[in-house]
Amino acid sequence: MHTPDRPHGPHSTSGPGITPGRVPHRNTGTARELLARDGAVILTGHENTPDALVVAAAQVIGDRLRELYPQRVRTSHPGNTVHLHADSFDIVVDIGGVPHRRRHPDEDHVLVQCARPAPEGGDSFALDAYAFVDGLATTDPALHAFLISTDVDLYGAWADLRGLPATPRIGRHVEFTRTGRRVVRRTDGAVPIHRDPDSEHIRVQLARLTEAVHDIEPSLPRFRLDEGDILVLDNYRCWHGRDGHTGERTVRILTARSSDAG
Predict the structure, then answer these.
(1) Nearest Cα to Cα of residue 234 among 36, 73, 69, 72
(2) Are 238 and 86 in contact (CB under 8 A)?
(3) How do residues 29-43 score in pLDDT, each as one tens digit?
(4) Which of 148, 216, 248, 255 has its CA 20 to 30 A from that of 66?
């Protein structure tokens, strides 16, 4: 079902949940405004092609665009729920003796184009992670303190995956870049640092974070991406996911870094 364009959609309808505004792709100024305000926007009217993702990245990021990473195509048939997450990975590969970065831990934008909508289900949801974490300061101070103060190995759970660096990537779930941007991470790859004396406490807090994320998902507003629609997210601020679905669903994913990143 097609959702009518609404250039100035509501920022939030359920706590930290986000309903991105839908903007015709030629309205670059409005798209940038909503992305800055809400952390997410949907561009409509692009051709359903891989090239459209590159064009969209240039439109919304403009002259701050620094790096694009190889596109990924994801097809699920059928698909289980994809829980809230922020795109983040660290992969460098060797091609002909030359190292090439295929993913970056500090990707600050992610673009998702719906190439084939699911016949039933597969609706998307997004959360303002800034608001979510700020709320924990009152509702769950212990978890909030963990997110802002504890170092973890961000990709340690995926250590056997080829292409990941041998050196652990250490960071906190909430950090600030040298340009002053706040980063709120959400990855299933996080584990305690090797031989960290607080490993058991860290595992407990990681499990509590997962539980809190899963608990809030049912309350978030849903939105559907039609064929060709491109969801653009501030990857430092917003987490995103989708419901399970029947039939086949295909998306193209492009991550990018701007001059504001890392």
Answers:
(1) 36
(2) yes
(3) 999 999 999 999 999
(4) 148
